Amino acid sequence: MRVKKLIIILIIATGLLSLDRFNPGPEDFISYIKSQIERAENTKNNSYYQLFVGLSDEARTTAIEQGVWRRDYVFFSIFEVLELPNREKFSIY
User: Fold this and answer.
1) Residue 80 in contact with residue 68, Cβ under 8 Å?
2) Confidence of residue 77 (pLDDT cuts 50, 70, 90)
3) pTM for this prediction
4) How far apart are CA 84 and CA 12, in angstroms?
């Protein structure tokens, strides 16, 4: 009985440590958004990411950083995409 409790505690502790270790940070989310933008460029579909097509990499990163809010709960994070800033502000025209 005591060994069973110890094994359960070890499994739970290992799971929690794994969740903490692999909790994505802001850099991971920005990388994910950039890959979605590239995919939108390649497929020419009509998605949210199509708004970023035509912007320079610096402007994309700035827009993404300003438009994303992260709530960190140690073992997981929730990323909220806020309203997209004015596109003309970031264009290179």
Assistant:
1) yes
2) confident
3) 0.59
4) 40
